[in-house]
Design a protein that fits this description.
single chain; elongated; Phosphorylase Kinase, domain 1; Transferase(Phosphotransferase), domain 1; about 900 residues; alpha+beta; 6-stranded antiparallel β-sheet; 7 domains
């Protein structure tokens, strides 16, 4: 809890703030009774209700009260006023040792005098069974007269018996922040100064302070930190494994002090200096530097013996040793894998496709939270922060990716691609990007993103503009997601699949930005991500059947090598969306959400009304698509991969009887009922061909082929019949994935089981994608969605034409659906997955839509471009694939960090 200047806490008047730390804020205060200045340390308000934290705070008071030594800051008392608890401590004037070292080199005699006083303070504490456990220059003050005061025994704990059993040390330690509660298995202290046993989460005794003392002594005599890596994780790794360059110590450091450093900095506590009193004794009886005397004696002896060849041999060996040391020091040293579990807080939620996304340097994450108005928004925090900061203006944001410098994030919201600064500020809209699936920010200032409708990768300047196709989408029948720019800027990695219902058997592929050539580099898996390595070209990570796999990958040669191996068996994923719940940073850290991958469960089909309430319609979860009610509303047809397909099924929901109609396998993506409800038309595709088929809805008889065309795109998709059933509208996607046209097929129904198709006639063949054709109930109008404006929107034209066109949707729309009982046109908003409705009127050849309104606040699942909803003939409810509500996934979301993960990959895949 912060205190205002001039506030009173008992007899103490707050004068000024002095600093803050994990255990509280510190103020200069005036003791009005004894007329002296003191230091007040206040327990943070955020932890005042934590019994363990409070107990630890009170324990600190008792610990300090038991110490009475000239080199330890003493405690005057413990004050409590309401919810405020505070320590009243000796106010120590002067600078910290960290400040003193930062000012410049300390003469060796002064440095050793400071070290002696530190050793005396620790010796006094150890004699009472107290371990400091956070000794560092910032916790040591040097008064103007040269007196040393050791501060902040806030992490002190009565020494544990050495025989206390410890936890499983095969597990990596967990860093708990900010509370950093004591106990075996937790890391406490400051990374650069903690002992190896602290860094590995093991129990410890007073020898942990001996190590920290050695690190401080090293900094005193050299002016440099012993462990000073880029990140906390690398620092911890250096504490555990990095060689200590004792040979680099200056000749000015006495040999006895060099020997003392070696004894203090033994990683095995059993070999370490056992008692800090021994260090105090060495410092108290230090000798003059002996290096020059020893060298002179050696030279004199060699001269008197006349053994010049021995001197030469010694020099050769000396140079060889230096060369070997240099060679070893320049080799990468594998760092140990460190595991951290982080609670993202009570407002965090699990994202649909990704949750926590890592910055390039691995120090910051962005994740979704529940906003104050019940809407999802993005939040960010660095790993050393106790809580996250909400990012204003990021409502409904998803699929986050970082800029190369880590200062910006790109994300998708409301059908737009946006960017926002991580330090705050209003987001900027860059371009339209409805229903996008992942983006990547290149070093040359471009953003590349994927669209889930099969149109491939788009590119736009990071400052914003009109998006353009990155390359020709050569694999026209495939869908691309989750692009990642590879090092060098010459290629992009992405996930590719020809089955939009399930991505379990998708491929990791790369596209060359120079040639446009697409190469599959790994088959069987999704959410592919490249991670660099200090040892080799790097690795490709991907999810398959709930496990995270890795394989060697060369980002320049664009090829994998060796056999993939499973690394983690508990990485959550979603094979319906091709989303893997993990991310990697450039420095080789990994973050993931543990859980089971939704690779086989799929999703149910449910009823949903205008209030957003859902009820089971088909409870068995699978990967469904294209739900369509029969004209009488008693049956629901759909496609599913439940039997391996996708194939067409019909479900009599009044009797709970499902029936499989087709057994032809891949390519059955869309279907439509005839107006009399007796037949179903479906589309299918095989190698090089696409066809429309007619069959009885009860499954009897044989399917009849209506139309066949050569196929280099996705295929033919039946969409709607005229009320009399004599004309079928279909989407023709056979020429390429990027070009889709609306055609109609006349039918002679004298023999309904063997209809005679006429010549197909084009209805809308303009550039781009014209899809989702739907005849109005009176057959006079055709609704459809088109990307002619740059984003998919719903339009209406007169049928068969000619005439004008009227735009119905705003902010992206697909799957127009006419009501049979009211003059209403429904569609699905691509901005947020909600169902919209627009009333309309017709006057002659004019179609007059009203402004669309939200029909239901609850969003539905948007797996792909395949139809995901249908209106029941009663006009009051839809069949949908419900998306989990925020409250369904809200809770304490934990993510797991694996630091030094790239080094672990090197060990696992040498």
């Amino acid at each position: 809890m912060s205190l205002a200047l001039g506030a009173r806490l008992g007899p103490y008047e707050i004068l000024s703030p002095l600093g803050a730390g994990g255990m509280g804020e510190v103020y200069r205060a005036r003791d009005t009774r004894l007329d002296r200045d003191v230091a007040i340390k206040v327990l943070p308000e955020a932890f005042a209700g934590d019994p363990e934290r409070t107990a630890r705070f009170q324990r600190e008071a008792k610990t300090l009260a038991s110490l009475n030594h000239p080199h330890i800051a003493i405690i005057h008392g413990l004050e409590q006023a309401g919810d405020i608890q505070a320590l009243v401590m000796e106010l120590v004037e002067g600078e910290t040792l960290a400040d003193r070292i930062a000012r410049g080199p300390i003469p060796i005699d002064e440095a050793l005098a400071i070290a002696k006083q530190i050793a005396e303070a620790l010796e006094a504490a150890h004699e009472q069974g107290i371990i400091h456990r956070d000794l560092k220059p910032a916790n040591i003050k040097v008064t103007p007269d040269g007196t040393v005061k050791v501060l902040d025994f806030g992490l002190a704990k009565l020494a544990e018996p050495t025989h206390v059993p410890v936890s499983d040390h095969s597990l990596s330690p967990t860093i708990t922040s900010p509370a950093m509660m004591t106990g075996v298995g937790a890391i406490l202290g400051t990374a650069a100064y903690m002992s190896p046993e602290q860094a590995s989460g093991k129990s410890m005794d007073k020898r942990a302070d001996v190590w920290s003392f050695g690190v401080v002594l090293w900094e005193l005599v050299t002016g440099k930190r012993l462990f000073d890596a880029e990140t906390v994780s690398h620092t911890l790794a250096d504490v555990l494994r990095a060689p200590i360059a004792f040979n680099s110590l200056s000749p000015d450091v006495p040999r006895t002090i060099q020997d003392l450093l070696r004894r203090c900095l033994e990683r095995d506590p059993r070999n370490r200096l056992r008692d800090i009193g021994e260090a105090r004794f060495v410092l108290d009886n230090r000798v003059r530097p002996e290096r020059q005397q020893s060298l002179e004696a050696t030279v004199a002896t060699s001269r008197s013996q006349g053994l010049a060849w021995k001197v030469t041999a010694v020099l050769i060996l000396f140079l060889a040793a230096i060369t070997l040391g240099w060679w070893r020091s320049t080799r990468p040293i594998p760092q140990p894998l460190l595991r951290m579990s982080v609670d993202l807080g009570p407002d965090a939620v699990v994202g649909d496709r990704t949750t926590a996304v890592l910055s390039p340097d691995g120090t910051r994450i962005v994740f979704p939270i529940l906003g104050s108005n019940g809407t999802l928004q993005l939040a960010t925090r660095t790993l050393d922060q106790p809580s996250a900061s909400r990012m204003s203006g990021t409502e409904r944001g998803s699929d986050v990716f970082f800029s190369p410098d880590g200062q910006w994030i790109g994300f998708f919201a409301d059908g737009k691609l946006k960017k926002a600064a991580v330090q705050g500020g209003a987001p900027m809209t860059l371009c339209d990007a409805p229903n996008a699936r992942g983006g990547t920010w290149t070093d040359d200032g471009r953003i590349i993103f994927a669209r889930s409708d099969g149109s491939g990768l788009m590119t736009v300047p990071s400052a914003g503009g009109t998006p353009h196709a990155l390359t020709e989408h050569v694999n026209g029948d495939a869908f691309w997601r989750w692009p990642q720019a590879l090092p060098g800027g010459k290629a992009v990695l992405f996930t590719e699949s020809r089955n939009p219902f399930s991505w379990e058997d998708a491929d990791a592929a790369v596209v060359s930005l120079d040639t446009g050539q697409v190469t599959v580099v790994q088959r069987g898996g999704y959410a592919g991500r490249y991670v660099s390595s200090r040892y080799d070209a790097g690795h490709l990570l991907y999810v398959h059947e709930g496990s995270l796999f890795a394989v060697h990958f060369d980002p320049r040669g664009l090829q994998t090598s060796g056999t993939p191996i499973p690394l983690l068996a508990d990485v959550a994923g979603n094979a319906v969306e091709a989303g893997g719940q993990f991310d990697v940073s450039l420095n080789g850290s990994l973050v993931y959400v543990a859980g089971k991958a939704a690779s086989t469960s799929g999703y149910p089909i449910a009823w949903m009304d205008a209030s957003g309430k859902t009820a089971p319609l088909l409870t068995k979860s699978a990967t469904y698509g294209a739900p369509r009610f029969s004209p009488d509303g008693k049956r629901l047809a759909f496609t599913t991969t439940a039997s391996g397909g996708p194939d067409v099924w019909v479900y009599d929901w009044t009797r709970d009887i499902p029936t499989q109609l087709t057994f032809t396998g891949p390519g059955n993506l869309e279907l439509v009922w005839t107006p009399d409800g007796k037949h179903i038309v479906f589309g299918s595709s095989a190698a090089g061909t696409a066809a429309l088929w007619w069959m009885r809805a009860d499954g009897s008889g044989e399917p009849q082929k209506l139309l066949e065309r050569k196929n280099s795109g996705v295929g033919l998709r039946p969409q709607s019949f005229t009320p009399d059933g004599h004309r079928l509208a279909f989407d023709d996607n056979t020429s390429s994935a990027a070009a889709v046209e609306i055609w109609t097929l006349p039918l002679d129904l004298n023999d309904p089981d063997h209809p005679l198709p006429g010549k197909p006639e084009p209805f809308l063949t303009t550039a781009g994608r014209q899809v989702d054709a739907a005849f109005s109930p009176d057959g006079r109008w055709m609704a459809y969605s088109s990307n002619e404006s740059g984003a998919d929107e719903v339009f209406v034209r007169p049928f068969p034409g000619p005439g004008g066109k009227w735009r119905v949707s705003t902010g992206g729309g697909k799957f127009p659906t006419w009501s049979r009982i009211a003059r209403e046109l429904f569609y699905l908003s691509l901005a947020d997955g909600r169902i919209m409705v627009a009333k309309y009127a017709t006057v002659g050849d004019s179609f007059n839509p009203e402004k669309p309104r939200i029909w239901s606040d609850r969003p539905v699942l948007l797996p792909n471009f395949i139809r995901v909803l249908d209106l029941h003939p009663d006009g009051k409810r839809f069949a949908v694939f419900p998306r989990p509500q925020v409250e369904d996934v809200q809770g304490n979301v934990h993510v797991t960090f694996l630091l030094n993960f790239s080094d672990e990959l090197h060990r696992r895949l040498p």
